[in-house]
Amino acid sequence: MTAKTKPLFLGIDTGGTYTDAVLWSEAGGPSGKVLAKAKALTTRHDLAVGISGAVGAVLEKSGTDPAAIKLVSMSTTLATNALVEGQGGRVALVMIGFSEGDLARDGLKAALGTDPVVFCPGGHDVHGNAAKLDLSGLEAALPELGASVSGFAVCAYFATRNPAHELAARDLIREKTGLPVTASHELSAKLGGPRRALTTLLNARLISMIDRLVAATEGFLAARGIAAPLMVVRGDGALVSAAFARQRPIETILSGPAASLVGARHMTGLDNAVVSDIGGTTTDVAVLDGGRPRLDPEGATVGGFRTMVEAVAMRTFGLGGDSEVALEDGVLSPKVLLGPRRLVPLALAGMVHGEAVTSELERQLRAPNPGRMDGRFAVRTGVPERLAAGLTAPEARLYEAIGSVPLALDRLLTSNAQNATLNRLVSRGLVHISGFTPSDAAHVLGKQANWDAATARLGAELFARKRDGRGQFIAATPEAISERVLVTLTRWSAEVILETAFAEDGLDGAATVAHALVQRAVDAHPGIARLSVALDRPVIGLGASAPLHYAGLAELVGNGCVVPEDTDVANALGAVVGQVRVSAEARVSQPKEGLFRVASGETVRDFVDEAAAIAAAETDVRAIAAGRARDAGTDSAEIEIASEFRVSTVEGQRMFIEAHVVAVASGRPRIAV
Fold it and tell me: What is the 3-state secondary structure (H, E, C) of 286-353?
């Protein structure tokens, strides 16, 4: 068949800075063919604008009739970035059968922050037997909570063995508030209540963000006459339907990086590699083994939180082209520090807002001495006003003072307390900070030219005027500080790649060892002990800025670095070449001798025969997996079932303890006819 008669696939990746689009056809050889690709700025206030810009450019370049597109697939780093930067909607956590002491486990208290929590008596034991449920406290709190949060997360003790109490709380909340509710048993069948509660809390925070992304994409596709199914890449690289992703947005953490792994394998044909994807906000590093990404058996870790989400074994670092550039405190010769927070680059702010930004930078440069807040601005993100619910009085006052045009921080803030208040607004996703970033440094040196270089140079001048511990300027020229920033970014990139390799090898202190090795590699006086390291496989460098930042990477990691031709749209390409894959689990336990209890989905049943219980569990998971596969977007799923038994031997007799039955359904996504 020719490219014209083969169905066309549209891939979209919505990142923290750019939205990418790629048009791909199965025709053109084993790897298919990229017909067109394009980028547009991600517009967080209205995601449809960025999507429209990227997809519109692809359609124009290719001359494609929108009706010829039979599948649209999307990956995103928005959920990942939100967790790394500590952002998300304000939600209420409902804990059933837990005590306040349980908040101290698995980072749950840190993740909760100042969001409200309600404790209710109830829950179940390991066999699914119920304690007395009392939701009166929750019901009394709902009128106030319903007006101050964007959603609810519900977690009950041993809900994976019996979800009845979670279902009761979920129904009550929906009836009284109409707000989104996430129940923990919907996300994971694993034990470990506090970590399951953490996963549920993060999911609830992300619902409004992913909902806006899906709605914006669906609205744009309808407006352009693209009547094709919309899929979303999950954190394990599998595809699911947009409706599926809306209910379980936590599963899209690491969506963009997972898509990039699929794209990296597709573009290079390498089965074994370390894949490093550098974006505006994060660098995501993972390992390809035998052509497949390694999965993290313990669950994805993002933003310092270990979740129960099955995802690629990806390590995410707050290091990218838009990372905040700062100086080490309290030393004579301060080092340049990068991230983990993303800033809006000054070059981008200058391109969008012009004189409003440059006039303030010029004013600060005319001052005889550098100021602590030089080169920093605050601007609203433009999210819907309802997401600003629950602000304290100081937060509300400061939020009112900030508008849609960047405002210099030295004019906005009058105290250190206000600086802390501003940081809380940033963490809520309500405000962006603009400042000097590696992207600005690249503009100053002529290595990047997509935004306003003159504004970037003003920011570099201001940063170069900062003082070291001796009272001297830290750099003589804007070019000097910019070169130093880019060198630091390449060195830190090597460190995070080596840290990932050491961690995959099970070595302790991976970050410290990686830092020491890279330091010795570039130090003119490496010391008495000679150290060297080399990866056993090449690095695949992904991201639009990979050709720039990874140019000197090979000598630091001891192996080659491959940057594919379409590296700038690897995520978008990976989004359209993947498969749907979902799973379902059931547990069979023995509460007492001769009684076998099957917990599958939202049902609990008892049997008096082990074989009958196992057969029922297999039938259940097959049916649940098939249903989830249809919901996730495939009509041609193949289902594989695996069972794992825990038994013991007492006086020569086999004693059944527990069985774990898992069904995995996979298939290509359905396409429009």
Answer: EEEECCEECECCCCCEECCEECCCCCECCEEECCCCCEEEEECCCCCCCCEEEEEEECEEHHHHHHHH
Total residue length of the chain: 673
Which tokens belong to 173? 């909340």
Q: Rounded to whole angstroms, how far apart are CA atoms 651 and 300? A: 42
Kind of pairing between the strands at 69-76 and 18-25: unpaired
> Could you tell me how far CA 10 lies from the centroid of its own chain?
22
What token pair was written down for 58? 């692809």
What would the two tokens of residue 354 be? 């012009």
Report DSSP state, residue 103. G
For residue 506 the two structure tokens come to 């099970």
3-state SS assignment for residue 400: helix
Amino acid (one-letter) located at 297:
P
- What are φ and ψ of residue 134, in 5° steps? -135, 105
Long-range contacts of 605-612 (CB under 8 A, 24+ apart): 610/656
CA 452 – CA 351 distance, rounded (Å): 5
Residue 514: predicted pLDDT: 63
pLDDT (tens digit per residue) in 405-451 = 999 999 999 888 899 999 999 988 899 999 999 999 999 999 999 99
| 207 contacts 191 by C-beta, under 8 angstroms | no
Residue type, 194: P
Burial 415-435 (b: 16+ CB within 10 A, else e): eeebeebbebbbbbbbbbbbb
**Collapsed DSSP state (helix, strand, coil) of residue 232:** strand
Question: Rounded CA gap, 444 and 448, in Å?
Answer: 8
DSSP code, position 104: G
Task: Please give the biggest Cα pair distance in the chain.
Answer: 88
Cis peptide before 340 (omega within 30 of 0): yes
- Lookup: tokens for 227: 């009547």
CA distances in angstroms from 526 to 33, 335, 516, listed in the order given? 47, 18, 10
CA angle 66, 71, 76 (to 5 degrees): 105
pTM of the model: 0.69
Give the type of residue at 515.
Answer: H
Buried b (16+ CB within 10 A) or exposed e, 303-338: bebbbbbbbbbbbbbbbbbbbbbbeeeeeeebebeb
The total of other beta-carbon atoms located within 10 Å of residue 196's CB is 25
User: Among residues of the chain, what percentage have pLDDT more than 70?
Assistant: 93
C-alpha pair distances (Å), 232 with each of 27, 68, 400, 558, 620: 23, 20, 36, 36, 26
Distance CA 264, CA 567 (A): 8
Residue with tokens 């000054």: 346
Q: Please give the C-alpha separations between residue 535 and each of 185, 234, 272, 462, 538, in angstroms, as whole numbers.
A: 40, 28, 11, 39, 7
**Residue 569 dihedral angles phi and psi, to the nearest 5°:** -130, 30
Question: What span, in angstroms and rounded, lies between the C-alpha atoms of 53 and 76?
Answer: 16
Locate 258 and state its tokens.
Answer: 């997972």
CA separation for the pair 113, 107 (Å, rounded): 10
Burial label, 43 (beta-carbon count in 10 A; 0-12, 13-18, 19+): middle
Query: Residue 571: which of 81, 19, 83 has the closest Cα?
Result: 19
> pLDDT tens across 88-128, in order?
778 999 999 999 999 998 889 988 888 999 999 999 998 88
Angle of the 453-464 helix axis to the 355-366 helix axis, nearest 10: 30
Residue 378 and residue 645: Cα distance in Å, rounded? 57
Phi-psi region of 195 (alpha: psi -120 to 50; beta: other; left: phi over 0): alpha
